[in-house]
Amino acid sequence: MITFPNAKINLGLNITERRPDGYHNIETVFYPIPIHDALEIVESDNISLTISGLKIDGNTEQNLIIKAYRLLASSFELPKVEINLLKKIPFGAGLGGGSADAAFTIKMLNEKFKLNLTEETQKTFAAKLGADCAFFIANRPSYATGIGDKLKDINISLSNYYIYLIKPDVHISTSEAYSSVVPHKSNVSLYDRILKTPITNWKNVIFNDFEESVFTKHREIKEVKELLYKQGALYASMSGSGSSVFGIFDTRPQPLSIPKNWFSFIGVFD
Hints:
single chain; Ribosomal Protein S5, domain 2; Alpha-Beta Plaits; 2 domains; four-stranded antiparallel β-sheet; globular
């Protein structure tokens, strides 16, 4: 069985408060985008994970895919499996690639071995692996609060718009991104701002709170956003805590001249 986990972008990201447990509450809108990994699961004599494509550092036992398998195996009698991942979604980019792979592993195991788990039960398992993992179970536009784990469907569509995404060769750790952010709450929720504001005016009312501190330390990321607007983007923003930046266009944009070791993607939203 094979499937194709997709990435996501954040339409706005507001840090609303610091929690007693040291985490932060946020509000954001997760939106799926057509950049995909490829994930295959076959029964085997051993449990293994083989990764090709983009290199991923670290022990495979710590990979969220294996953690997802072991999480379900702790509640169900699963056969041993060989898992093959073709990695195309860049990591350290704010695109949720690792979370997508974990969530799609849960969905594949549920289907392949007829576990009959409801969507909500799959979300419960996924949420144990990471704050944004549950989003990829339903994999539809969602307003997220809490630490990103409380999801509410939001009726927006970017269908027929183009996305131009660029990731500079920069890695930003989550701790670095949060280190200079001052939490604040808005009088109007991001949910309402997105639904009530035309996309042509999003740049004036929808913001990513990580940008100010990240742009100060990594000017090349700020310059990407500026270039996307010069190229004609209706809205441009850093996704998550970076380092990728995306622009939304109503016509197909021309490719920009960027360094060869940067990642870029131009496509149409599904």
